[in-house]
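Sequence design from tokenized structure. All designs in this work follow the same two-part layout: the structure record, then the generated sequence. An example of the structure record is given first.
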């Protein structure tokens, strides 16, 4: 366990968790751009072999980002390695004020909390668990993964994100509050919460008292290592003590191509993607169809968006995608993607990009982020948006 002296203020380590695509990276990027003077050290963990999340936050931080690749932190990564990185970040000469660990969307938060509690670095202290919830997908995700309630029960702050896309935000908030067991619940669009929530979300006295190793050692393997999965992209958890983990049965496919993709073929692939393929992220090179931009792609459930952004001057052109799903035919998907590579990369016809542009942010006003949305930034003082247990009476009363 960590132990500080009165002369060495400890650096809080906040664990940022939440199901696939809930908006963890978006929230983290918001924090990085709105942290005021605070310096945030980041540890990113991806499920797929290509580290898309690390790429998405690295630009903002440079050497204060550490990436722990392929596999859920809760199982595949050596605890010692994480601890070593926490120590390095904590002793960074630039002076880190807080460390945020962005867990993979399939990680078990209690395992991560346990790892941080077990840290041998005297400079760091567990700073709380933040769970991000996708309000639009919450009902379906919870149906498939009832264990989400267990994650919410451990959280110190729950960010109910994507309230712009949810049909019944109030219903989601009610369910979340019930499961969150007294933790603060805050609603957000595009992860825009006041950073003070997170840096202040250190477990309250009461919750520190409640949270012990016994609480988080739900699998009884007690050594803190959480075991290990086999190599490769496959993260099947059967037979190694992690069958109850969120990622049991999930597989990831990593696809990379130095040759440009054909937009029509890729759109056909995306439009016909199988039900179990829950998450796709990465970026695409459409070659002559748009030589200036690469297209970031995000699919979460049936939701799909492309975000064009200019290639860097020296940036190597290419496509990198990670696909995550349950019950998917990994080899088949890889083959299908290979079939989307353009046969004539130097050629482009006029209408080829139409299918892609339908999914570019801004084409759909509902998802368009405008400067006015900044008014939606939730601050701790904003009582209307911070839902606390005390609000319960107010919210419940009208229905009684
Ligand atoms: N409409 C809408 N989209 C959002 C919001 N927050 C995030 N997104 C989008 O949701 C997609 C997934 O967001 P990420 O931040 O990458 O999610 P994540 O939790 O880091 O994903 P994983 O690491 O794969 O688990 C991206 O396309 C985001 O732009 C929101 O509040 N509203």
């Amino acid at each position: 366990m960590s132990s500080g002296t009165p002369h060495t203020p400890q650096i809080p380590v906040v664990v940022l968790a939440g199901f696939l695509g809930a908006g963890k990276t978006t929230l983290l990027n918001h924090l990085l751009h709105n942290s005021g003077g605070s310096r945030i050290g980041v540890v990113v963990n991806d499920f797929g072999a290509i580290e898309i999340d690390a790429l998405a936050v690295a630009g903002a931080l440079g050497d204060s980002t550490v990436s722990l690749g392929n596999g859920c932190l809760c199982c595949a990564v050596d605890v010692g390695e994480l601890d070593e990185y926490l120590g390095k970040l904590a002793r960074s000469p630039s002076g880190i004020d807080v460390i945020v660990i962005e867990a993979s969307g399939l990680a078990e938060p209690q395992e991560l909390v346990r790892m941080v509690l077990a840290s041998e670095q005297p400079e760091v202290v567990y700073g709380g668990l933040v769970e991000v919830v996708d309000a639009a997908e919450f009902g379906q995700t919870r149906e498939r993964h009832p264990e989400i309630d267990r994650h919410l029960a451990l959280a110190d702050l729950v960010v109910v994100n994507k309230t712009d896309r949810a049909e019944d935000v109030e219903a989601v908030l009610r369910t979340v509050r019930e499961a969150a067991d007294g933790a603060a619940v805050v609603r957000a669009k595009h992860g825009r919460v006041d950073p003070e929530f997170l840096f202040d979300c250190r477990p309250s006295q009461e919750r520190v008292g409640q949270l012990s190793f016994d609480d988080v050692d739900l699998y009884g393997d007690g050594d803190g290592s959480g075991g290990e999965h086999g190599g490769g992209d496959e993260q099947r958890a059967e037979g190694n003590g992690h069958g109850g983990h969120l990622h049991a049965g999930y597989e990831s496919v990593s696809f990379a191509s130095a040759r440009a993709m054909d937009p029509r073929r890729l759109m056909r692939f995306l439009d016909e993607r199988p039900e179990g393929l829950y998450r796709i992220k990465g970026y695409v090179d459409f070659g002559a169809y748009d030589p200036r931009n690469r297209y970031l792609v995000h699919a979460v459930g049936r939701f799909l968006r492309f975000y064009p952004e200019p290639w860097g001057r020296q940036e190597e052109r290419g496509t990198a995608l990670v696909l995550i799903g349950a019950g998917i035919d990994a080899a088949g998907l890889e083959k299908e993607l290979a079939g989307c590579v353009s046969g004539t990369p130097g050629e482009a016809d006029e209408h080829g990009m139409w299918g892609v542009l339908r999914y570019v942010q801004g084409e759909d006003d509902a998802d368009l982020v405008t400067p006015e949305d900044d008014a939606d930034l939730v601050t701790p003082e904003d009582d209307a948006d911070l839902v606390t247990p005390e609000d319960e009476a107010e919210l419940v009363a009208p229905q009684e």
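The chain has a mean pLDDT of 77. We note this feature because it recurs in several other targets discussed in the main text.
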